[in-house]
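Supplementary notes (optional reading)

For those who missed the lab, this is the record we used. Protein: RPA-related protein RADX isoform X1. Length: 659 residues.
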Amino acid sequence: MASRSPRSRGSCVLQRALSPRDGSVFSAARYRRTCKEPLYLIALDRYKTDPASQCHFSPVSAPHGFLYDATLSDGDCRVRVSLHPNLNPLLQNNALRCGSELYDVQFAVEFDEARLGGRCRTFQVLGLEIEEEEETRSPAFQRLRGLNLQSLPWFGRSDGDDEAAVAPLLARRACYLPLWDCDDYFGDAWESPARRAESPAHHSENDADEEGTQFVTLQQVKASFIKKSKGKLGPLAVRVLKKSRLCHFGKEDRTNECPYQAELEVADGSGAASVILWNSLCLRWYRCLDPGMVLQLWDYRVKESYSRRLGEGRESQDQDQDQDQQHIEISLNSRNPAAIIRVVPERSVQRGWRLPSLTFSFLTRAALASCPDGTVCDFIGLVRFVGRPERTRKKGGGGEEFSVYRWLQLDDGTGAGPILLKLHSTSQPETHARLRPMFIVVCTNSQLASTGSQQGGAPSYQYLTSTRHSQVYGHGQHRGRSYTTLPLVQRFIAWVHTLSEETEMSTAAVGGYFSFPPLPTNIKHYLGERKGNPCLLSMEELRAEVGRLQYREHRRFTVQGSVIAARYCRPGERQGEQGRLSTSRAGLAECSTRHYSSASSLDSASLEPHCSPVGSPEVPFSPHYLRISSTPKQSPPVRSPRKRPLGKCRRKTETPRKR
């Protein structure tokens, strides 16, 4: 679609605010401007700082951790800007988010001498005010909602250069990070399977001649590594058994354009090994590879395995494997040498390769009741409840890195009832965003855990948790999977067909606050869990800890005091203005879970892992679940209820502007 031409300089807000006042092409090397008229935040991106980021700031305000880029628009054009680190708390608390209306935006405009002969301008936002009152939104905001934001021209760019760079503005990074965690991929830089299938490189790789190619086995590779042979090894033909989530290892003091790593567990007829994708190969191949695929690998490097030092501890199943199979690791790099990866269709797999088939270890809810903690299994169930995403701080992340998880309640018709699944990131953001009640979900390589023991009379609860190698398959992703022919899965599908959709829908729930494990019922149980240390906080300490919480962060605090007032509210009743919970700030559902129906429309911000640009279309869905591979029926789109505003939330380094 052709981009619209911007209005004349007298009518475009960004041109009036950011252009040199004397009208000349060149002005001072750096100058400041303040835009009094409203601007709108339509996109927000996050990335890790690096040594190149320090030169853009004074030593006093040098950034640490993460930086943010934003796209602002006035309805006629848009501009890419970097945000000063002093504004980071507004983003971490989700006060500044996509769709925010901004006033008194202070810009620092600088000519970049390294680009286009010094004629390229860069923009940085130093300060701003946020307007959160819905009734005071300007008419321009409603007009902006009806526009195709991708068609707006870029301010300061010529007609032939109408695309914005996908790379961060103040760091040498190849792509952006998700807003709320570092375990998922994000952005168009990650090559999708559909886009790769259309690329000429994909067809040239698949058209390669295999006749006369002598493949080697993993056992031969290991023997050559032990003997320290220096000859070049032949290509490998292996099957992918497991796929780990992404590992982002970017550091502030190191320059690495693509600091990513992913691990594949592969095997052939002679043994198993780990394959590590490094750096830009993750961008090109991570989304295109799945367990069960057959790969041919050329120009790889062999190292001694150190995958046990990568992130979390390995599952107990991996610990029981023969150490002889995990002795080596295959490293695939984008250079020195540049590895070659080819996906082999199942119909082209040769019998002489002796590749093992992909196996599963499904267990029912009834069987899990007698299994010990640490059991690794696959599980299939009908989703009864979908919890809201929550975040916890990672150890060793400097307090700024978080892991995201959510609770699912799955039922397979066996045992005493459903079982809970603590679903961490599996680097499948699209699949996690589409999780809905009454859909069939399969989680592979999940691990059984329990909340404690029966000591002191405290009850124990079993639940499943995803692991580093877990994969989740939801609605529309089961077709063609080899597990659909297993007897246990067939029995589960038969049980689902016996259910009444109307009855099951009446009990389904989504969102809300869900606390697990349950809180202790008395002091004795609580002290037993804390091993005698109550860890009580004073009210002043509680106020300080709550003030440090970030968006979607989940923590538990224990305080001791006297109840001086209580108020009863009926389920679903809104509290007063002062005591109301801010659903906009939480980005989640109401405090209590709400029932799910086929005519209801979920708030996308309450389920998706990161902010979506304003104006993005809502995807209608249907909770039809009786066919494991059916195409979802298209229900008419229903507008989500408007979020309650935060209230007066003007923030600025100077005195707020009176309106």
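If you only remember one thing from this example: The first strand starts at residue 30 and ends at 35.
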